[in-house]
Every structure is written in structure tokens, then in C-alpha cells.
Amino acid sequence: MSCCEAGKAKKICNVLFLCTGNSARSILAESILNHLGKGHFRGYSAGSHPKGEVHPLAIGLLKSFGMPVDGLRSKSWDEFSRPGAPEMDLVVTVCDNAAGEPCPLWNGNPGRAHWGIPDPAAVEGDESTRKDAFRAAFRQLERHIRSFVRGQRGGS
Known about the structure:
Layout: E1 13-19, H1 25-36, E2 41-47, H2 56-64, E3 90-93, H3 96-100, E4 111-114, H4 127-152
Parallel strand pairs: 1-2, 1-3, 3-4
Helix pairs in contact: 1-4
């Protein structure tokens, strides 16, 4: 999965992370990529049926790791299929539900990937149990994103 086409130098690689509710996993992925991408990558997130708010445990976890949270919001994937939307280089589904849904047509011709991550927002129990679920999802996403970024930069 390369963000840059052969012979076409691209300054920023745009990656859209999709999930059904766009309140936890895709939000975490957006923030992680924007932190690790260091100006070479730009993460976005959206949902097929957005909840309308970012899960508070997602925001708290991101802040605890020093990740960016400014501008994070739960939004529809329709925003990214409209004229004038940023052109995506890659679209990654992070939940199995979104992976099985018919997606809109995206600007450009982005690559596609699926990283099935369990939904931490669906975990029930006490606060400690729910926070553990968010940390587990964060770690899985961070591993995927670190590997992706390293691969795009040629292993550096």
C-alpha cells in the first residue's frame, strides 16, 4: 500500500479511517497517524452512521499519551465524497461492520485496507475494564500505523 504513485512525488499522504460510529477506533487512528506522520501523513476519520460525539474515554486516552485532540469530531463519511473534499490516498476500515458496508465513491482512486479492531466503546463493565479496552485498541492501532508509516518511508 503505497501513498505515492510511481513518478508522482506527493508531499502529504491522506489516509481516511472508517468505522460505523466514528467515536472511538477511527478517531484514535486519526490522531495516532497525525502524531506519528510528522507532516508526511494526514489522518482523517469518519463513520457510516456517526454517533455525533467522540467517546470521552478516547479523548482522555489520547490526551494521556500526548496525542492531538484538537478538531476531533464524529462525522459522516459523506463529507469525504463531496466535491472539494481532500483526495484520499488510502481508506482503512477499522471495524468489520464498516468493511462490509457499501462505501461512497471517494475523490481520486485511493487504496483500501482493513484492520479489524475490537470496539472498545462496546465493552461493558467498570471504568477500569472499559479503559483497558480503549488502551488495547490504541495499542493495536498504533502497531498498524507505525508499521504503515515505516513501510511508506522505506523502512527508515
